[in-house]
Amino acid sequence: MSQHTKISGTLVLAMGAFLACGAAIARQESQPATVPATVPTAPAASPAPGPMTAPVSAASAAPTSSSASPGPAPAASNPSPAPNVEERGAMLVEGEKRFATNCGRCHQSPHHFPPRMMATVVRHMRVRATITDADMRLILLYLTQ
Amino acid sequence: MCGVPTLSARGGRSGWLWVVLLATLLVAPAIQAQSDCPDISAITPAPVFQMGTGFVTTFPGGTPSLGPLINPVLLVPVGSNWLIEARGDLESSIAPPPGGGGFTGSLQTNVDYLQLDYIANKYMTVTVGRFLTPFGIYNERLYPIWIRDLQTDPLILPIEGGAYGASTGAMVRGGFDATSSVEINYAAFFSSNSTIQNLQSDRAFGFRSGIFLPGPRLEVGGSFEHLLQDYRKNTFGFHFEWQPRPLPLDIRSEYARSWVGSGYWIEGAYKLSQVPVWRDALRHVQMVARMQQFYEGPGWEDGEPWVNTNMFEYGLNYYIRDDIRFVSSYGRQFAPERGNMNVWTLGLTYRLAMPIGPGDIR
Description:
The structure holds 2 protein chains of 2 kinds.
Chain A: H1 2-29, H2 58-61, H3 85-102, H4 115-128, H5 133-143
Helix pairs in contact in A: 3-5, 4-5
Chain B: H1 7-11, H2 15-26, E1 48-60, E2 65-78, E3 82-92, E4 107-121, E5 124-132, H3 138-142, H4 157-160, E6 166-179, E7 182-191, E8 204-213, E9 218-227, E10 234-242, E11 249-258, E12 261-271, H5 279-282, E13 285-296, E14 309-319, E15 324-334, E16 341-355
Antiparallel strand pairs in B: 1-2, 1-16, 2-3, 3-4, 4-5, 5-6, 6-7, 7-8, 8-9, 9-10, 10-11, 11-12, 12-13, 13-14, 14-15, 15-16
């Protein structure tokens, strides 16, 4: 009997330690993450989606041609050019939509994790929740911007 | 736009859908993902450690039962198409013995899943190892303590998950766009009998499929499982899930039937984010209600309610952050053969996620 109580006490203590540790890590990770080098930087970047906050809006994610863009302009001679600012903005809006449609079915918006970590989580969710390939790519793009 | 070109748009008739699907399954490894979707190959996934944990106290019939629970999850991506994933379960139920006295309990451990996934193409993922039995939506998607809106299990969970909730063998699964407004998801598995401690499973096969409409955010589907040992029983079920777009409302329901019994649950969860007063406080609040019924069948297994049972529950959750949540609920269980009782729950849930391994995580 006392052994069971000891085990349970240890379990409770371990949970408390994890809670404290996790809160510290989460605070550290809530700092804005850098954008992958291959993807142009989003203009007018909105803050990281925190708890219960509205994700990036269509107006802020889809820049107009008059918006100042810090990203490099795609070269016309490039055989496989990266998506231009308008296309990427449209993809971000679509990614937001698909995030709400797929991920929001079961849980809240997560922290803004670093891109490499988010890539793993999204792959995990692709398998777990049978998310389509297109949804996975757009959601990952949205979550890593 | 990525994902908009669909099978029907390319093929024309819906009949082609099934031809293409069949051909895809047969020659899966040869097909490469090709689309104008975002290129995500530049992001190298990193190993991740996650954990869902909680301390939920239940009061079934007025007797307190303390329930600490830890669910560690390990995700290790390998290359661009592989993923190793595992989840353990450490929990205890600490309650006073029937004769009175101090609280006692024992630590229970289990391996929920330990599987290797290979993403063969954009239509199919192949899984081997120990995996959650794909049946309905609760066991696979809604079970984690930090996801579920009510902390008590549905009465029919032992039916849909089988005796262990997991299978040991192989599985194929995936999701794809059937048209621009219809997605189909599927899973088919075979499980072998395992008597290894903490890794038990039954010999069985089964499948699950669902049709998801992204527009109205509605999914309906069905599941089937056939046990290849003991009584060789069949189990089947249906699930329904709807998030009406204008409202922060989740409506979910499941029905399952096997020889041990049948039953259903229906649950609604409404977030008060649209209430025009006290917005800052109320947007963190979620109200939940669930109604469920279980009807006993000719057979029984350990863990089944065994007797006709009706139950309703009301819950109130408060999201302190997206990963920390205060949960509470009250329920009333009506089981004439076993006695009626109130079931209260009170607790805190938490989800941790952190990268592991060397290298720059960004």
